[in-house]
Design goal:
The chain starts with 9 loop residues before the first helix and ends with a helix. It is mostly helical and about 170 residues long. About 60% of the residues lie in helices and about 0% in strands. About 5% of the residues have low confidence.
């Protein structure tokens, strides 16, 4: 995490702009690039007594909750400069048929992953419901009914999500 960087989005710039005069010197001069470690140190600083006092003295007062890692990282991309491999591009001399086969294989892998994810979600929801009902000392018949009901609800939502995803492929 020490070498990770995140994209410097507009909302992040807006959130950090009022902090610039408040931050300690070693932190305030590093706004050209935004390493993850810098955002982490800003977030930690805002939760210290010194940081809380500085935020309260600002006009208008700033809230430490606006500088949690979740708030700072919302909408940013990790490692925006890194290029991840795209789908294979057909080279000169390769056939379009080989390219379409490669694309179809990648699409099939995504579909299998989506189905496995759905099955694990259904099983996980059913088992978690069974476990919770068991902790409440319910009778086995009610545990089974509740677990099946929850699994059916999750299966229905997963089926709808899969159909939406499949229609956009």
């Amino acid at each position: 995490a020490a070498r990770l960087a995140v994209s410097f989005e507009d909302h992040l710039a807006d959130a950090l702009r009022p902090l610039r005069p408040l931050l300690p010197d070693p932190v305030s001069g590093q706004f050209r690039t935004i390493p993850y470690a810098l955002l982490s140190s800003i977030s930690k600083w805002t939760r210290t007594p010194e940081g809380a006092q500085a935020l309260a003295r600002h006009d208008p007062p700033l809230h430490a909750a606006d500088y949690t890692m979740v708030a700072l990282l919302a909408g940013t991309r990790t490692e925006p400069d890194r290029r991840f491999p795209d789908l294979p591009v057909p080279h000169a001399g390769s056939s379009a048929d080989a390219y379409s086969t490669t694309r179809r294989d990648a699409s099939d892998r995504r579909a299998v992953t989506a189905v496995l994810n759905a099955l694990l979600s259904i099983a996980g929801a059913g088992l978690a419901t069974w476990w919770a009902a068991d902790r409440l000392a319910w009778k086995n018949e009610w545990k089974v009914l509740l677990a099946l009901f929850v699994a059916i609800v999750v299966a229905s939502s997963e089926a709808i999500l899969y159909l939406i995803w499949d229609s956009r492929r």
